[in-house]
């Protein structure tokens, strides 16, 4: 009996040691510039993240799986520990910050640039201007505006949350508001239907997929007049930089890994010179405009 007991204790000790050794080896497989991880991105920002990841993986021994979801789904995945790295068009809210305080993880938030929400309309509508007062009035139930309907990508998306906040609404109105699942579907629908205003992430218009590109000839990107502002402004890189376009929004990489993993390395890369050049080239606004070196002979 004593021999059997000793053998059992020894077996448990060896098994425990093996477990911790394996766990340590597994953790060492990921560093800031190598290994593998998953990043969830707000669907409205997917094109620019695909570009960043492609360059990052070509420069380092890293493999990043990119999943695009609505803003609400992305933030829920962070809380449920499905992922520890997300890219959003907002910072963490108070409830999310309090959650990570409880689990003793300090999120690292890195601002990487600025994009915008864009309004699009069918080219046959022959109107390229829209006043935010009319949009807000329509969302509050007014029938006196010329807007027939607003088309969003997803009821849980960042564009819906942004517009509801702007209009002072807790939830989207049921009348005149339509939603699909992706920005691609919004562009297609507006290109094929007159009288509807599509609400999309600007990144999808500057970096269209093949599925979107064939519809761009049938839509107009509208110039917007802000509430209590004068003048209509298009969602261009210059207008975003000057602060004249009223629907600009900052972009953030939120890393809650709790250790020096790929999340930290990727965020540093995107916020660095190469990553900021990619954002600049995409038509969005980088946090820092990369310098240009002139060779004078």
Automatic annotation (TrEMBL):
Q: Which InterPro entries match?
A: PBP_domain, Phosphate_ABC_transporter
Q: Which key words are in the record?
A: Signal
Keyword Aminoacyl-tRNA synthetase in the entry? The reply is no
Q: Does the keyword Signal apply?
A: yes
> Which Pfam families does this entry report, sorted A to Z?
PBP_like_2
PBP domain location is 37-273
What name is this protein filed under?
A: Phosphate ABC transporter substrate-binding protein
């Amino acid at each position: 009996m004593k021999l059997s007991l000793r053998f059992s204790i020894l077996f448990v000790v060896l098994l425990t040691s093996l477990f911790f050794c394996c766990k340590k080896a597994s953790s060492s497989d990921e560093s800031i510039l190598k290994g593998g991880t998953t990043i969830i991105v707000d669907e409205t920002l997917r094109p620019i993240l695909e570009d960043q990841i492609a360059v990052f993986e070509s420069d380092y021994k890293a493999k990043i799986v990119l999943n695009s979801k609505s803003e609400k789904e992305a933030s829920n995945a962070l809380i449920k520990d499905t992922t520890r790295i997300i890219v959003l068009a907002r910072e963490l809210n108070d409830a999310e910050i309090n959650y990570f305080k409880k689990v003793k993880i300090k999120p690292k938030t890195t601002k990487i640039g600025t994009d915008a929400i864009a309004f699009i309309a069918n080219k046959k509508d022959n109107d390229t201007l829209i006043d935010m007062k009319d949009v807000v009035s329509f969302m509050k139930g007014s029938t006196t505006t010329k807007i027939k309907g607003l088309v969003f990508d997803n009821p849980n998306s960042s564009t819906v949350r942004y517009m509801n906040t702007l209009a002072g609404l807790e939830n989207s109105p049921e009348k005149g508001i339509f939603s699909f699942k992706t920005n691609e579907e919004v562009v297609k629908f507006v290109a094929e239907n007159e009288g509807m205003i599509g609400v999309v992430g600007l990144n999808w218009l500057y970096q269209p997929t093949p599925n979107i590109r064939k519809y761009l000839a049938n839509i107009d990107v509208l110039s917007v007049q802000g509430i209590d502002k004068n003048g209509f402004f298009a969602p261009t890189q210059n207008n975003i930089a000057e602060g004249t376009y009223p629907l600009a929004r900052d972009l953030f990489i939120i890393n809650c890994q709790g250790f020096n993993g790929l999340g930290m390395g990727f965020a540093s890369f995107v916020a660095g010179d190469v990553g900021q050049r990619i954002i600049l080239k995409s038509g969005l606004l980088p946090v820092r405009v990369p310098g240009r070196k002139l060779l004078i002979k």
